[in-house]
Amino acid sequence: MSTSTARPADALRDGDSAPQAPPSAAAKKIGGVAGWVDDRTGAAKPVGYLMKKVFPDHWSFMLGEIAMYSMIICLITGAFLTFWFVPSAGHTIYDGSYVPLRGVAMSEAYKSTLDISFDIKGGLVIRQIHHWAALMFIVALTVHMFRVFFTGAFRKPREINWVIGSVLALLAIIEGFAGYSLPDDLLSGTGIRAMAGFVQTAPVIGSYLVYGIFGGPFPGEMIIPRLYSAHVLLIPAILIGLFTAHIGLVFVQKHTQFPGPGRTNENVVGYPVMPVYAAKAGGFFFIVFGVIALISALVQINPVWAYGPYDPSPVTAGSQPDWYMGFADGALRLLPGWLEFHFWGFTLSLNIALGALVLLPLVYTVLGIYPFVERWVTGDEREHHLLDRPRNAPTRTAIGMAGITAYTVFMFAAGNDIMAIKLGMSINDITWFFRIGLFVLPPIAFWVTKRICLSLQRRDRDTVLHGRESGTIIRTPGGRFFERHEAGLPEEQWVLVQHDAVSPLQLEAEVDEHGVARPAHRKDKVRAALSRFYFSDAVNPVTPAELAAAHHHGHETEAIEGTHAAEIETGSRDDDLVRRIE
Amino acid sequence: MNEQDTPTTGSEVATGDGHGQAVRLDEGHVVGQGGIPERFTNPGLPHHVPRMADLDEAAAQRAEKQVATLFGISILGTLLFLVLYFLVDVNETVYVPGIGATSAANVGLGVTLAMSLLGIGFGAVHWAKTLMPDTEVVEERHPMRATDADRSRVVQVLSEGGASSQITRRPLIKYTLGGALALFPLGLVFQVGGSLGKLPQKSLSLTWWNGGPSGPGEIPEFKPLRLMKDPENQPIKASDITIGSVVHVMPEGLLPDPKTQEGGAEHLLEEKAKAAVLLMRLDPSQIKSQKELDWGYQGIVAYSKICTHVGCPVGLYEQQTHHLLCPCHQSTFDVTQDCKVIFGPAKRPLPQLKITVDDEGYLVSTQPFREAVGPSFWERGQ
């Protein structure tokens, strides 16, 4: 309908469009090469479009960038490592330059990892960059996921991209585990031993599954080459494919933006790719790479030479996985033994299967379906390109915080032995604290977060209702003083009132006007109950009418001293409440 | 027209001065008296505030020099990297305050690499922030949805294409094609699935203590085996085990000669992963289980070292409390109570190996483990 006409926001300021400059000699030269390519591909149109594409600016939008760059750094350094790493469990005797291990029998995989660390110049720094970048990748994508969740960026039309992102997050963890296991040192070998135990507990097919994966009894000689194939070929191929779709959808759907003056659901306000984002994002790649290189130069990670080669009999105390596996490992530490059942000669080990085989897919399934649940509850079919401020979606924010709390409890539970040693406490007490905490802490986190969000929303209302202080003190004939507040909304307060007012969905009558029971009634009841859960205590933004009322009843008589005005203000607040309840 | 064409409420944008009156009357926002709109109007983009470098050429030149310096640092970093690469020996160590002695090549190459990368990164970002245009640009969004005409054309193309292929009219083709497509992956699935590895057969329930190699398809015949110290591969005299001591044990014949690395099991790690045993000597009066006493020898008891949770070696023995602790998930077993689980996620006690002494006074097994060692699996009770 009216989209063809220029929108007011497009011409808000003079000088928004850059002046046309005549092409320079260099530009003509580029034009010659580009023309040759365009003659054969017709690339000028899409490239021209992409180069002037606008991206909004916000620090939190860099989190996904960090994840993307860390992944690219992993690809680059990973390619380097393949030149020296030997993915074989074949037996060999070490004769390299790390003296303590000379003459020790070990696998080729472990020996070549030692060679990368001690005999190839710069090999250690490349290996450390690879490991640090992998950790950074998963940290960044996790925090990126938090940002997307708490700002509601997963809402229509971006549900598909949220699902792709969830799959990417899961794959990144599996990819990390596969890579971590490759050096075949004692620590990672113990990790594989535990993994074999997990798989073995799968009901009915467990022992066949584990013999299939390991090509026979654990550990066998197949697991290293198979993990290698998964780590350098299968999973990266899927990762890169999904990542391309992920970033492609960002281009197609255009990036979301935070609300602000001039930003609407129908525009994108920001900077063009050429030149600003080309420089900023390109430069940021080098910053991420540089920071990881610096960390790798100064902070040691995974010193495999200290652990020795894998042997199923010895073990190191304080065995810890990389951080992203912590939550699954923590779950295994918390699950009580009585969840193993024996019946008719069969064994069902839910104490392991729940934590090792169910939890990981479950977490990512719940994540993946969340947008669809919220859309069903809110009944919101609109496209959303403006982000929510987390406080303006208190229930969603509280759900997110409860989820993060549960995840954190699991993750810290994986360090219960370290905590027991460092804090000098009983490991049994710590484990029990986490077991109880898993059920108690998330609801507390939910409640606290929700109260904080509602309070912040109320403060936003108060800020707006207070009005703009004019600095003009007026003295009434009766001798009272008050400050005049102006009725207009200051530009910087737009962000406090821009969001939609919300209210719970109303339950329709159980029977229609003819007295016939409506068939979908039970489903509607659930939906209305969930809607109340989300919105029954919603604090809605100030409306112009409320602001005007506040000025009529409140601030014009706001005395600089005295309690009268405060009473009036409270009164007007009560009026607001009454209106909202109505 | 579709639903997204209707702008959401609150998306109206005022013109310029920040106090615009633009309200969409067609949405019925105006309530009651006074014509007060239901929502505030978007005040529009704030005015652009020019930066120092936009106004002052001297500031712009300063920024230019800063950017050039950063790029210069990058060049220097790369050159230093090359110098260090050829200068520093791979095994040289260097003392770095706060870190200690560390690999000189790692620190030197890593820091110079970081210099060459960060110089480019910070230079480019500084350039963008100080000199490139910082006026915000507005791009319009369009609904993701294609037009109704495009949608119906897709439906039409597909249905017409389907009809012209006659698939709906010729069920024979339809069903044979469906069957062929459904079946063809089977060949590939069976190739990979069937060839992944040996089937477990009895091997998860057998160990070297059953008399020898216990891999899939091998049914060892039981013979008493001496308990051998790991890794020395020496038999153990009962009289050498003092109260409170703990010994890592493997069955006779499994370990290779510790000096020549010859002999031993063909599948060494696989056998070790099942056969590892911990030998402990307790004061017999402390042992509360009669079976444990009967299966041991004068307070010397042997238990599988493989955790019944997920199979980590149960590596930590607390001499005072006689508790065995698995370092992976902290399952705790009480050796005085037949290694039953007293804390942690494991369910089953560690299996005990029945031992005695032979004619020469060496410890020897009298029967294999009576149940599968290590983590649970579905058919372990069969």
Indicate the structural class of chain B: alpha+beta
- Cα Rg of chain B: 39 Å
Structural class of chain A comes to: mainly alpha
User: Which range best describes the helical content of chain A: under 10%, 10-25%, 25-40%, 40-55%, 55-70% or over 70%?
Assistant: 55-70%
Strand-residue fraction of chain B? Answer: 5-15%
CATH class division of the largest domain in chain A: Mainly Alpha
Keywords (chain B): 2Fe-2S, Cell membrane, Disulfide bond, Electron transport, Iron, Iron-sulfur, Membrane, Metal-binding, Oxidoreductase, Respiratory chain, Transmembrane, Transmembrane helix, Transport
Subcellular location (chain B): Cell membrane
InterPro entries (chain B): QcrA_N (IPR045603), Rieske_2Fe-2S (IPR017941), Rieske_2Fe-2S_sf (IPR036922), Rieske_Fe-S_prot (IPR014349)
Pfam family, one (chain B): QcrA_N
Pick out its properties:
heterodimer, A: 582 residues, mainly alpha, Cytochrome Bc1 Complex, Chain C, 3 domains, two-stranded antiparallel sheet, 8 strands, 59% helix, globular, disordered C terminus, B: 382 residues, alpha+beta, 4 domains, five-stranded antiparallel β-sheet, four-stranded antiparallel β-sheet, 7 helices, 31% helix, extended, disordered N terminus, Di-haem_cyt_TM (chain A)
Question: How would you explain this protein's 3D organization?
Answer:
Chain A: This is Cytochrome bc1 complex cytochrome b subunit. Chain A: Residues 33-259 form the Cytochrome b/b6 N-terminal region profile domain. Chain A: Keywords: Membrane, Transmembrane, Transmembrane helix. Chain A folds into three domains: 63-388, Cytochrome Bc1 Complex, Chain C, CATH 1.20.810; 389-449; 453-581, no CATH class. Mean pLDDT of chain A is 86; it is low at 1-12 and 554-582. In chain A, the strands form four sheets. In chain A, strands 1-4 form a two-stranded antiparallel sheet. Chain A has helices at 25-41, 44-51, 62-82, 108-118, 123-150, 159-181, 186-200, 206-214, 223-253, 273-298, 304-307, 326-334, 350-378, 394-413, 416-423, 427-466, 494-497, 521-535, 544-553, 564-581, and strands spanning 54-55, 91-93, 105-107, 267-272, 340-343, 346-349, 468-475, 481-486. Chain A is mainly alpha-helical. Chain B folds into four domains: 1-44, no CATH class; 54-130; 151-191, no CATH class; 208-365, 3-layer Sandwich (Rieske Iron-sulfur Protein). Chain B has helices spanning 52-55, 57-87, 104-130, 148-164, 171-194, 268-275, 290-295, and strands at residues 93-96, 100-103, 137-140, 227-229, 246-251, 277-281, 300-304, 316-318, 323-325, 332-334, 340-343, 352-353, 355-357, 363-365. Residues 1-33 of chain B have low confidence and may be disordered. Helices cover 31% and strands 14% of the residues of chain B. Chain B starts with 51 loop residues before the first helix and ends in a 17-residue tail after the last strand. Chain B is extended. Chain B contains seven helices and 14 strands. Chains A and B meet through helix 5, helix 7, helix 8, strand 4 and helix 10 of A and helix 3, strand 3 and helix 6 of B.
